Amino acid sequence: MYNDKSVNENFHIARAFAIARESPDLDIFSGFSVDDQKQIRKLMIETVLSTDMAVHFDLLNRFTSQVDAKPDLSEWTDRTLLYQMLVHLADIANPSRPFHLARGWAERVIEEFCDQGDREAAIGLPVSAMCNRTAMNMPRAQLGFINIFLKVSGWLFCTNLAHPGRQIGWQRCRGCLSSCSQDG
């Protein structure tokens, strides 16, 4: 399905469009011209596909290059990359929530990964990285995620584009890092 590329993300955006078409009261496109609908659809697809962790480092590199070239957002003629980065950050920002919320969601994600690993093992496939229930260490996994993905992305975004007073989420992330360190 979807040529094995961003399968989850492609499914979700395709399903969102199908729901909009099937339900007139949910059709977010009805008030737009056909040309505007095409532009909005393209932007939505590109933005949702940017939430695939397989494109994380490419997205970060493209964003860094754009910020280096034009640090003033008012000079960006195409803001697609900005929208992609915003949605991607929202997608990975769970550790920036208050710890009791972040932990609950992290537990759900880890359980989903381990369920995948169990299914892989049951049909004789090698268990994917981060999906081995017996080797899973949630605090270590969360620390790795924060250090590899979230800290760099959040820091880049906050230091270059966000107002300093709006960095409370990244302060919470540091609190989560501290809590994970104590648990592991």
TrEMBL record:
Q: Name one Pfam family in it.
A: PDEase_I
Task: Alphabetically list the UniProt keywords.
Answer: Hydrolase, Metal-binding
**Record-listed Zn(2+) binding positions:** D91
Q: Which residues form the PDEase domain?
A: 1-184
GO BP terms: signal transduction
**Which top-level group of life is the source organism from?**
Eukaryota
Query: Entry's InterPro entries?
Result: PDEase, PDEase_catalytic_dom, PDEase_catalytic_dom_sf
Q: What is this protein called?
A: PDEase domain-containing protein
